[in-house]
Amino acid sequence: MSVKQIAHLIADDLERVEEAIAIHLDTDVRFISDVSNYVLSSGGKRIRPVLLILCAQLGNYTGKRVYDLSTVIEFLHTATLLHDDVIDKAHLRRGNPTVNSRWGNEISILIGDYLYAKAMELALQDKDFLVMETVSKVTKEMAKGQIIETLR
Fold first, then answer.
1. CA distance 108 to 43
2. pLDDT 10s per residue in the chain (152 long)?
3. Is 92 strand, coil or helix?
4. I want to staple 17 with a disulfide (CB 3.0 to 4.6 A). Which of 68, 70, 105, 119 is the partner?
5. Dist. CA 7–CA 12, nearest whole Å
């Protein structure tokens, strides 16, 4: 079964993830919302939320926090992509101009930092210490991995 077929089975849940992403991207600094929406609506498959939703279902979890936690994962992933595009001097991602090629490296890094901070804020709002600990460790390991890759 393909990711697309699996996503179709949980389409209602993925729609709620999209709604949560839109809600959490809303900010009083319109430019941040616009750039974040640009990169987050560029056609990704939302594999990470699909996996989180499926794992939640496997554990018989049916609550709403899965949507905000999916947003945490997507924000972290997107932040890494923004930073990675600067490091790699990428001009296209999924056939679209990258944030750094449209608005510059500084904006790309700052929007990435904003998304990291927003992800941490959402993880804290979940009020589950294990979630925050896991998000922090994963973020740290991703940064270490990127540093190691950059040094090569």
1. 18
2. 887 888 889 999 999 999 999 999 999 999 999 999 999 987 777 899 999 999 999 999 989 999 999 999 999 999 999 999 999 999 999 889 999 999 999 999 999 999 999 999 999 999 999 999 999 999 999 999 999 998 98
3. strand
4. 70
5. 9
- Asked whether 53 and 3 are in contact (CB, 8 A), the reply is no
Q: Are 99 and 114 in contact (CB under 8 A)?
A: no
Token pair recorded at residue 65: 């926090």
Separation between Cα atoms, residue 86 and residue 106, nearest integer Å: 9
The rounded distance, in Å, linking the Cα atoms of 140 and 114 is 16
Q: Locate 137 and state its tokens.
A: 């460790």
